[in-house]
């Protein structure tokens, strides 16, 4: 630590630009270095964040800076490798962008390496710390819409890269209840977004639909990519209860949350949870990270939470691959899409 601050380094300066800007703005951290394979990208971020050291070599940065905290915002297929290297280098905390890894095998290796070194690992499913989602969970707990019976999420993108946020949000709104089973179907074809059926270093599908059932019988539905609900925003989330519904109409919605129940007037805007230092996006995530490192208290985005989200995501892929309902715990450590014929092979 430097003068009571945690020395932080960011690797992956395209996705990690906002992380670097946030760390540089907080009194808990000193942004000591930024790293990217494209040195010019790293220099541009350094110029905007007070001039931290610039690197194009991750191992060299770890050795020379000996940071307390490393933020990994690189393509998904590098998450496991870089996390393990940071843990072995002795860092105290690792923030890894979502999704945690490409498959369960890598996610388990990440968690094992951090447990062995004592590094705290958190994964960037930041929506569960935001005011809109905290408000929705509070309303659910207070019985504002009665007993919930169905949650639904719809979003653009592939299920691993974007659907992971949807899955984590639904698990959070369900009180992180244990999932009993997952049933899913998908299709794959080249399209404008993913012409080669790959993204962020891994195979992707064109559209996915999944149903999950929790231990209580509560169910959730997810629609991503080309089967998402037409006209809906990114990360559109609904919760249906016996007496009404809650709706988060996407990240860019004019109203952060809408509620409809037995009160007259249709959909209306509830009062959001007030600012508490942790529910304002990335700043709150990193303030909470500093607090966790100082006190040893769990972080809301702890890897143990992310592992449950990862398991549901991978179970959906495995269900689609096998055409079967997958009971948890998941026993497949490999990425199910890698076990299927590629789009190119299917066309041939």
From TrEMBL:
Alphabetized InterPro entries for the sequence: Gfo/Idh/MocA-like_OxRdtase_C, Gfo/Idh/MocA-like_OxRdtase_N, Gfo/Idh/MocA_Oxidoreductases, NAD(P)-bd_dom_sf
Pfam families: GFO_IDH_MocA, GFO_IDH_MocA_C
Domain Gfo/Idh/MocA-like oxidoreductase N-terminal: 8-125
SUPFAM superfamilies associated with the record: Glyceraldehyde-3-phosphate dehydrogenase-like, C-terminal domain (SSF55347), NAD(P)-binding Rossmann-fold domains (SSF51735)
Signal sequence region: none
Gene Ontology molecular function: any one: nucleotide binding
Ranges of residues in domain Gfo/Idh/MocA-like oxidoreductase C-terminal: 160-328
PANTHER family: BILIVERDIN REDUCTASE A
Family: Belongs to the Gfo/Idh/MocA family.
Protein's name according to its UniProt entry: Gfo/Idh/MocA family oxidoreductase
